[in-house]
Each structure stands twice: as structure tokens, then as C-alpha cells.
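Problem 12. The chain below contains 166 residues. Write out its predicted structure in C-alpha cell notation.
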Amino acid sequence: MPASNVKQLCEVSREKLKFVNEILESFLNTHTLPELVQDVQEEETVSFYTGFLSDLRHLLVFSEVSYEKLGVTLRRAKFDLDFAERALYDVYHQVVNAYFYPKNECYSEDGRYAYTGQDAIRFRMKPIRPVRDIVLEINKIFEELRDELSYYESDYLTQRKMQGAK
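Solution.
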């Protein structure tokens, strides 16, 4: 991939991560487990929201690290293509995958709804409105990142291995 395209992809990805970071940080700073559980002490409900908050914290950390790494990439006096591509690979495999495949599986993407105009995200149990809203608010951004960085899903490593075999 040409350096100019990679640099532009770094810039766009960094801006999207900045927006995601702001949304996630705001949510995590204003919502607590007792607030989300809302006096429902059923074990399944508490487990759902505990897992959900844990997944969001992990997503925020991965997103912040990638945001910083992309910033380092873009601030260097001479653009380092290899470092930039590795940073984009990490965005795909750490951040995008952390969103679409959360460890606690409180929600998942149902591909059958992807082209119907309906929300493709399905929750394991019906969440309260703020939880639903935060996931759906960042969903579009992560769909865009996944599409823009699809090269880094597998083609990037294949190309790197082929270059190493030469």
C-alpha cells in the first residue's frame, strides 16, 4: 500500500479513535454498576452489567493505546511506513476485534441484519437505555474502521510473510 494512503488511513483512524475514546470515557465516568443494575439483584443481571463495564474498560484502554501509537506515527519527522502499518494492524486486531468480539459477550453482531437497515447488534439480555445507546453510538464508527482496515485482517500478514521469504 502506498505511503500516502497509509498516512491518510492513520489520520482517519486516529480521529475515529479520538471520538470513540471521548464517548467511552464519558460513559465510564458517569455510569456505575449499581446505577446500571437499578436495584435488580438477579445474579444474571449483575453479571451482564459487570461484564459489559469490563469490556468497555478494555475497549477504552486498547483504543487509547492505538490512538497514541497512531499519534506517534504521524508526528515522526519521516513517516515510517512499517511502523504505521503495524499500528493499523494493531487497531484492527486489538480495538476493532475488542468491540465486535467482547470477552463477556454481552452483545454480538448478527450479520443477518447488516444489510436491512436494522441494528446488527444483539444484546444477550435487554439492557437499559444508556447501555444500548453507547454501543449503538460507537457501532457505526467500528463498522467504518473494520471496512477501512480490512486489509490488515489477513492480507497484511500474508504480504509481510511473502516479503520475508524473498
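Discussion. DSSP finds six helices and two strands in the chain. Students who got a different answer should revisit the alignment rule from Section 12.3.
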